[in-house]
Amino acid sequence: MQRTHILSTGSFLPEKIISNEDLTQFSHEARKLIADKTGVQTRRHANESECTSDLAVAAARRCLQKIDFPLENLQGIVLSTSSPDRMQPATATRVQHVLGAGNAFAFDINSVCSGSSFGITVVDSLIQSGKFKTILLIASEMYSKILNSKDFSTYPFFGDGAGAVLFQAGAGCSGGVLHCCLETDGSKNDTICVPGGGTMLPFEKMPGPRSACFRMKGEEVFAFTMDKGPKIIRRLLEEAGVAMEEVKCFICHQANINILHGIAGLLGIPKEKFFVNLDRYGNTASASVLIALDEAISQGRLVQGDLVVIATFGGGLSWGANLIRI
Amino acid sequence: MNEIMEKIKYGILDLFPEIGKAPITSEMCLGAIPNYDSMAAVNLQTFLEENFPLKVSLDMLAAEMPLGELVAYIGRYVKNRN
C-alpha cells in the first residue's frame, strides 16, 4: 500500500526573543500573570521588515536542505496561514518564487490554529490521489503583526514562527500518515476572528484600525478545547484501531499549558507524553505543531517507527487530528 | 467627576464593543461588561493607567466593583495628587 510518509522536517523561529517582562505596556502585576495563566515565558517576534512568507521560506529551506532535496522535484507547496502576507494572492505563491520551486503548484489554506491538521489531511489526500508524489506542507504565522499590542487577552500569548514537513508517496513503507479526522462548528465562527478587513467589514467601514486585529473569547476557547480535544484524539485512535498506550508522543496545538495538561488528564495520559514548547515560543497558531514535530524529531524524542498523534484546535471553530508513524 | 465618568465610558465602549448600546451607569458593576474576566480587567487597568495619573490594582477591578465606586476612587486619587 502506498502511504504518505515524512521525508524531512524543518522549522524557523525569528531571533528576537521577547520575555514577559519586556511587555511593559502592561502593569508588573499583569505581567506576572502571563506565565501562570498560559505557561508562556518568552515568544519570538519577527523584524519590522519581515513578512509571513519570509518565515515560511526559512523553514522550508531548513527542511529541504536537511536531505539535499532537489527543488525541481518538488511538485506542490501547501501553506497554512491565518496571518498572510496580503489579502491576496496566496502567500504560498511568494514562497514558491523565493524558494525557486518553479515546478510546484502553491496555494494557502486557512483553518486558523488547526491549519496544520487540515494541511496534513489535504496533502495526504493529494498524494493518495496518485496525481502527486512530493508535496511540501508549511505552516507559517506572524501574529505579532495582527494583534493589538495593548490587548492582554491576546498579545502576550502569541509568537511568530514557521514549520515545514516534506511529504512523499512511499510504496511498501510502514510509516506515514495513518489516519486523519477533521471537524468544524461554523456556528461559533465569531469566537476567534479578525473582524475587519474582509467583505463583512471592509476597511473603509471599520470603526478603527483595531477592527483589523485578532480577537478571541478566551473562556469559550478553553471550554471548546477541553471538550473537543480529548474527543477527537479518542475518535482518531479508535478509528485507526490503535491503543492510547501505543502512541509515543502527543503533539497538540501549543495554545496554553493548562489546556495541554487538561487534555492529558481527561485522557488519562501522563503529561510527559505531551510535547511542550509554548514556554519558549508562545502560541504560534497553525505553525505550532509543525515546529513541535520538527523539534521532537531533531531531539530524538521521536524516531523511525514511533507513533505520534497531532491534535489541533482553532478558529472556525475547527479541530483536527492526525496519526502518523515516523 | 463627570469628566472621569465620561472618559471611562469612552474607554469601556472602545475596549469592549460587545457592550453595544447597553447603558453604562454608575450602578453598573464591571462584571456586567460582556466577557469581563481577568484578561479584560488587565485591559481596563492599562486604559486607566494611560488616561489617569494613577496606579490601580487588579483587585480594584474585580467583577463586583460598581463603576461609580471606581470613578470615586479615581476622583480621590487625582484630587490628592493635585
Q: Choose one word for the global shape of chain B.
A: globular
What CATH architecture label of chain B applies? Orthogonal Bundle
> What is the CATH class designation of chain B?
Mainly Alpha
Query: Termini distance of chain A?
Result: 16 Å
Low-confidence stretches of chain B: none
Radius of gyration of chain B: 12 Å
Provide the spatial order of strands within the biggest beta sheet of chain A. Answer: 1-7-6-4-5
**How many individual helices of chain B?**
3
Helix share bin of chain A: 25-40%
Spatial separation of the terminal alpha carbons of chain B: 14 Å
Our estimate of the beta-strand percent of chain B is under 5%
Please give the CATH class of the largest domain in chain A.
Answer: Alpha Beta
Largest sheet composition of chain B: none
The number of strands of chain A is: 13
Keywords summarizing the entry:
heterodimer; A: 326 residues; alpha/beta; Peroxisomal Thiolase, Chain A, domain 1; 5-stranded mixed β-sheet; 4-stranded mixed β-sheet; 30% helix; globular; B: 82 residues; mainly alpha; Non-ribosomal Peptide Synthetase Peptidyl Carrier Protein, Chain A
Write the layout of secondary structure elements.
The complex is a heterodimer of chains A (326) and B (82).
Chain A: E1 2-12, E2 16-19, H1 28-38, E3 42-45, H2 52-65, E4 76-80, H3 91-99, E5 105-109, H4 115-128, E6 134-142, E7 160-171, E8 176-184, E9 192-193, E10 215-216, H5 218-240, E11 249-252, H6 257-267, H7 278-281, H8 288-298, E12 307-314, E13 318-325
Parallel strand pairs in A: 4-5, 4-6, 11-12
Antiparallel strand pairs in A: 1-7, 2-3, 6-7, 8-13, 9-10, 12-13
Chain B: H1 2-15, H2 38-51, H3 67-81
Helix pairs in contact in B: 1-2
Task: Characterize the structure shown.
The complex is a heterodimer of chains A (326) and B (82). In chain A, helix 2 crosses helix 3 (91-99) and helix 5 (218-240) packs across helix 6 (257-267). Chain A has two domains: 2-173, 3-Layer(aba) Sandwich (Peroxisomal Thiolase, Chain A, domain 1); 177-325, 3-Layer(aba) Sandwich (Peroxisomal Thiolase, Chain A, domain 1), CATH 3.40.47.10. Chain A has a five-stranded mixed sheet with strand order 1-7-6-4-5, with helices on both faces. Chain A has a four-stranded mixed sheet with strand order 8-13-12-11, sandwiched between helices. Helix content of chain A is 30%, strand content 25%. Chain A is of the alpha/beta class and 326 residues long. Chain A has helices spanning 28-38, 52-65, 91-99, 115-128, 218-240, 257-267, 278-281, 288-298, and strands spanning 2-12, 16-19, 42-45, 76-80, 105-109, 134-142, 160-171, 176-184, 192-193, 215-216, 249-252, 307-314, 318-325. Chain A contains eight helices and 13 strands. Chain B has 82 residues and is mostly helical. Chain B has one domain: Non-ribosomal Peptide Synthetase Peptidyl Carrier Protein, Chain A, CATH 1.10.1200.10. Chain B has three helices and no strands. Chain B has helices at residues 2-15, 38-51, 67-81. Chain B is globular. The two termini of chain B are 14 Å apart. Chains A and B meet through helix 1 of A and helix 2 of B.
